[in-house]
Amino acid sequence: MNDLINNEPKLFRITDLIGLFKNNFSFLYLVFTLISIIVEAHYYKKFGINIFSYLELTEYFIQFFKYFYELITSIFLTCLICYIVFTIIFIFRFATKSYSTPIKRLNLIGFVSTILISILILYLLDTEIYSLVGIGLGLYIWYLYHSYINTYRKSKGFHEHDLPYIFFLFVVIIIFVSTFNHESNIEKPKKSIIFLNTKEVIKTGYGITIVGETNNYIFLRNVKSNKTRVINRDKVEEINFY
Predict the structure, then answer these.
(1) How many angstroms separate the CA atoms of 210 and 181, rounded?
(2) Cα 107 from chain centroid (whole Å)
(3) Can you say whether the dihedral through the CA atoms of 121, 117, 179, 72 is positive or negative?
(4) Nearest Cα to 144, choosing from 47, 33, 14?
(5) pLDDT classification of 32: cutoffs 50, 70, 90
(6) pLDDT at 81 over 90
(7) Could you tell me if 189 and 205 are in contact, meaning their C-beta atoms sit under 8 angstroms apart?
């Protein structure tokens, strides 16, 4: 029996994951920065913009996470709601002594309730549609964390071989979200009026589109002429969005 226990996959609890994150922060920072560089370069290349000339290295990491707070929020929210919903379900089960109710049915009720509550809360928070992807990832993470019940130790946690899959899935979803955000800049352009210190006034909308921004530059695309213009923020006196 001891041999069976020793051969079981190592489990990672939340505290273990926090420690793992701290120990590998430099590596994760490098990976996320490289992914951000690739995503940003690919997006701006189709407008003839060499983003390496306009974006500082520290901005890549910021750009990478700028769009993802809603995704991370939806993942955290889903896990929190899962905890509350399943706690209530199993308290009710023991209080009413409904032991004959199959666990699979209770799990189904819990997951469906979590999805509906999460969607309602995200809708009330007026989040982007892609934040719904975070609900799926949150449920997947919750399922993995609670699905493994060690026969001898009755522990909960992530398998050590589950972590690469979670990391890969998270990266894929983040790339999808980044692409979605970039494309939405084109399909749903921001309407604004830009006042330059040269007295020039630029109206953006469906004729001229803001395809991207950095800390120091604004990238405009003329839809009709297919020409891109780069404006230094030092020349911008005021921007009004409407």
Answers:
(1) 13
(2) 25
(3) positive
(4) 14
(5) confident
(6) yes
(7) yes
